[in-house]
Every structure is written in C-alpha cells, then in structure tokens.
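COURSE: Structural Biology Practicum
ASSIGNMENT: Worksheet 4, Part C
STUDENT ID: 0417
INSTRUCTIONS: Below are two proteins. For each, the amino acid sequence is given first, followed by its structure token string. Answer the questions at the end about the second protein only.

PROTEIN I
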Amino acid sequence: MSKKPLLLIFIVLLAITACTQGEKKTKIGYVQITEDAVLNVAKAGVFQALVDSGFIDGENIKIIDNNANGDLSMIITILQSLQSQGVDLIITNSTPCMVSAAQIVRDIPVVFTVSFSPEQVKLKTTPDNLYGVYDPLDVKSYVSMMQACITNLKRVGLPYNNAESNAEYSAKIFTEELNNRGIEVIPANVNSSNDLLMTAQYLQGKNIDAILVAADNTVYKGLNVLAKTAAESKIPLFVTDAMQAEKGASIGMGVNYKSWGYLSGLKAIELLKGRKVNNHIEAITEQELLINIKACNAQGLEIPASVLEKATSIIGN
C-alpha cells in the first residue's frame, strides 16, 4: 500500500482533532434557589442578554442549569459540583445563592441577579470575583404607598423565613421604617412554605390591617395560601416583588425582574469577553407597580387614584 494515502488520512485526522479542540465550549454554571415563575423571568433575562451578544447554549457555551428546589443546604452542594466540573463562570439567582457563592467560590467569576448586595446582608467581605446587580429596596416609598392605600394603617403582619438572609434583611428594615411611623409590626416566623396555613391563621387573629411579604422566597412559594386567608379575612396582602401580585396579592411594587436579569447578564458578557468590569456591583433603579384588582376586591382594599395613576400594570379587571 502506498504511503501517500496513509499520510493523507493522518493529515485529515489531525485536522479533525484540531477543529474539535477549537470548538471547546465555555462552561457556565447556573444556580437558582427554587422553581418560581418570577425568578424564571430574571433567569430568562440573563440568558437573553447572552444570546443577544452571540453566546448560544450548545454552540459556543454550555450552560449547566441547577435548581436547589428550596433547600438552602443544597446550594453549597451545587456550587461545589460546579467548581469540580471546572466551569468558567457561575451565575446565581437569589440572595442565598449569592451569599453561598461569595463565601466558598474564590477562583471563578460569580455574577448574581435577584439579590441584595453583600453589604445589605452584612457579609464580612466582598470577594473580588463577585459581580452583579442588587435591589436597593426603597422602603420609604413602599410604606408611603401602603399608607396611601390604608390611611389608618396601625398593625402590619410580617411573615418571613429568618434562615434566608434576604428575608431577614427585608424584615429588619421594614420593621424599622414602620415603627418609625408609629405602625406596629407583628412578625411570624416561617420555616417552610408548609407552615404558611398556620402562619396565616396566627396573623388572622392578631387584628392586623395588612400583611406584607418582603423579598422572601419561602413565603412567595406558598403565597396563594396567604392570599386565600387575606380574602377570607378582608386583610390586604402587599408584596415587594411586583410580579408576585399575580399569585393573589393586592399590590406588588418593586424592581423589574426582566431588566434585573438582563443587566446581570450584561456583566456576565463583559467577563466572557475578557473585558474589565469597572462597576462590579451596582443597583437597579427600574421599578414597577402591579395592582391586582380581583385581589383588591376580595381583600377589601380600595386603591386611591394617587396610587392607581402610578401603576405600570393592572390585572384582574
């Protein structure tokens, strides 16, 4: 047999091997605290930003998608797994995921979305590899909106899971602001979404004027339970994430999740392109106000014109 065909085959194999090596995909690890339609909006925003800049899953990047399904202890396991898989970038969705990543990931860039800042949740240090967009949580404007809706607001029920740093922070600053305005806060600890029926019944007997759910993934997971009790008791239910009002709250006011995810995605793009990110961590300022008319009617809340005119979305007409 001639040596020329063998040489030709060898050259072709070398070319195929080189092409295969050149097609190595950048690996991106993603971790989300729980399956939730609202968190998924931010997730979609992140990935849309990647697509818009030419980063396509299955083509030039590989996304390793993970969900902790509400199990806080699982977040660390997922992050350790992503590290062992040698991912080039980690994207986190929710404050607990950001906190865990900030504490254990040191040699891989981490971009967070749907989170408070490290300073807000009192992390001792902010690692240099941490990037993202956070919610400044304008409690003054929020409480003013509540008072505009309920002019004689005296007592507010506040269910929250103190195992979530985001929920603990939100509860703290809302309690301070409400107390400063002479409004009593009735806290109710929630360890899991399965506790919400008992929590709702507890608050129902506390002669409260409203229920406030502030940035709490555990409570949001079972928000329909609170909404049902709120309707039965004619107690308006307020939430600090606008889209959560779709689950039965009267009013939701907070940052826009799609924009939030997209802005975080833009930071990921800069890192993937090897560019310097000057502002590692910054606040999102775009707010939205969603009013659920059906829930308002069921919960006995009459929305004043001053609030209605600020609504970015009205549903349940």
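PROTEIN II
(use this one for the questions)
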Amino acid sequence: MSEETAETRTALHAPADSAAPRSGGNASSRPFVSVALPVYNGANYLASSVEAVLSQTHTNLELVIADAGSTDETEELCRRYAEADQRVSYTRASAYRGVTENYQAALEATSGDYVCFVAADDAIEPSFVEECVDAHLADGDLALVFATTAEIAQAWRPGSEDGIDNSYEDDRLELTSRSPSERLTELIRHLHACNAFNGVYRASTIRDTLPFGAFQGWDRVTLAAIVTRGRCLQLPARLQYRRVHDEQVSKGLYGERAERLFNRKLPEIAYLESIHLLFKHFATVVHAPLSILDTMRCLGVVAVRWPLVRRFYWSDEWRLFRERRAAR
C-alpha cells in the first residue's frame, strides 16, 4: 500500500455541533453504519454522491471518503465536506493506489456495525440505508442487503426523474437459501451488472473477505465469498442508482487500462478472464468457513456452472490473450 503523509492519515472532522441529527433524539439507538466512498479524480459527480449519503434518513452513520491520490478538484471538495459535517472523514493517499487497494483502505477506515460502498459517480435514495438496516434487524442471519438498481444519465441530479432509465433491468438474485451451494449457484447464474456489491453488509462478514484482489472481476469474487458466508436479500424497491458515462470504471477494463486502474502488472492468465476467475472462485470456496460437505458442493457448483455461464466470452478473451502475447 502506498505511503501516506501524517496529514493525509488524519481524518478531518468538523466541530461536534456542526451537524445535528435530523431524525430526532433516538438516532443513537439505531445501529452505527459506515458508508465507504472510494474516489479517484471524481470531482464531476462527487458532490451528488456525498449529498445522497448525507441526506439519509438513517442518521447514525459515518461517511468515510478514501482518495486514491486525485489530481483534480476532488481533494478540495472532500475537505470542504469534512469541515462542514462531523460525520465525514477524509483520507488521501500521497501517491496513486489502485482501485481495489483504495476500496480496501476505505473499508479498513470504517468502524460501523454495518458497512456499504457508494461509488463516487453513483447515488442512493434517502431511505436506502434505513431500509437495508431494517432488513438486517428483522433477520440477523443476513450477510448482505441490497436494493434494486436503476441506471442514470450523466446529467442526472438528485430528486429528478429525468435521466433515469426505467427500461434498465437489474439483476434479480434470490440468495436467501440456507444452502451455501444453492446461493452460489444463483449468484453465478444470474449476476451480471454486479450492483449487489454496493449493498449494506454486516461489517464482520465483509471484513472477513479481505484482502480484495487486484484483478478484473474482484467484486464478483467478493460477492461469491459473501454468499458462502451467509444469506443475502435483495429489496424490490429501486433505491440505488448507477451512473452511465464515458469515464466510468467498468468501461473497457482490459489491457493497459486495467493495469493502470489496479496499479500493478497483471499476470498473463488475467487476460483469460474466465479461466482466471474460475480459479479465484475455487480459492474463495476453499477459504470459506464451510463444512467439508458444503465445500465440496460449492466446488462442484463452480466447476460446472462457471464454464457454462462464461462460455460466450471465451473467444474474445482468447483473442485478447493472443494479441497481448504477440505485442511482447
């Protein structure tokens, strides 16, 4: 992990009376929730994401912003929010760190009973955290609660229906089975957009999956680790928003761009993504706290289901692999 100066390691907080709770005197009786917001050069949409978090009806929360070493106006914006609201803390790497390293830094700086991630270009409805926490409190066995996601246009603003793509079909995941192998089967078969990653986790469970891997598909592997550790619930309400724009991380995440994003040289096997992720899923199952029988069942799910789901990508990945080798 890149070194940080003494100044950037210190979280900036406002005076204690700078942001009074907006939901009455019983806010402290609610579980403490940490919202982790990793960012790198996200000034264009950052304000919208931060305001969405600070407007949550569940006010017993902290917003932890982890800056991977931005070179735009991100630092100025973050320091402004940290000085204005005691719930906001901001840390900044002194040199660029990759996306998964920054996500991990954000998670490690949290202290809540529950944790969720919000991307610096995405948004959530004001009731998102409250509804997810209510679901956790109603069922203490849940490891993750997430909502239905809609895509939003580049120019979308909070509170507006303009720019919301109502034709977008989010993943529909039924992950409440008490069988780890059944949950893993459902995840592998039906996970496409990976919006579930930005749900509200039981903090002990998500921390148990560290460290995050620095490779394309690390969020899928993390979700696989989560479903082997506990049941997950998707809320039917549309409470999460995913912004579509030219600079979003998930676009064109291959080759040299991927290596810049993860801040490391990727092994050749990473360019055969389906095979690479197959082995990563195997490793996730082996390291999960499962019985021997459940481990064998989950390994069987990965061995059978993953190749079937990914077979349509093999030709493109093989072409990319050959192009990379020819360029050496």
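ANSWER KEY EXCERPT:
Q1: The chain has one domain: 6-251.
Q2: Residues 1-26 have pLDDT under 50 and may be disordered.
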